[in-house]
Design goal:
Length: 114
């Protein structure tokens, strides 16, 4: 697998890119044929986006709650650094909590009488 190579300040970044580079390096060190990078996460992201589009704030609330519960459990088990872009699990929990609150507000506020 050949990943794009540009100028030093012009390189792509991100977790998926870093994982692809690591997989490429691991295959090269084994001396074997490099297998193509499977962008499964992109398919997952598209599916989550589709569900959020179809079910609106309910889907956002559900995914945020599911993610919060998963990170809460992982943090209690000792995970302090995540592969998530935010890295620190406390930041990830705060981020998911804010998303859940925003989704809950979007569901409740239209029904509050003025």
């Amino acid at each position: 697998m050949n990943l794009p190579r540009g100028e030093p300040g012009d390189r792509p970044t991100g977790v998926a890119y870093e994982q692809a580079r690591a997989a490429e390096a691991a295959q090269a060190s084994k001396g074997g044929q490099a297998t193509p990078y499977d962008p499964l996460k992109l398919c997952v992201y598209a599916t989550v986006a589709l569900l959020a589009w179809l079910f609106g704030a309910w889907a956002v609330l559900g995914f945020a709650a599911l993610g919060f519960a998963g990170y809460w459990r992982a943090r209690r088990a000792g995970l302090t650094r995540s592969k998530c872009y935010l890295r620190d699990t406390r930041l990830v929990l705060a981020y998911l909590g804010v998303i859940a609150l925003a989704a809950a507000a979007a569901l409740v506020l239209p029904h509050v009488s003025r």
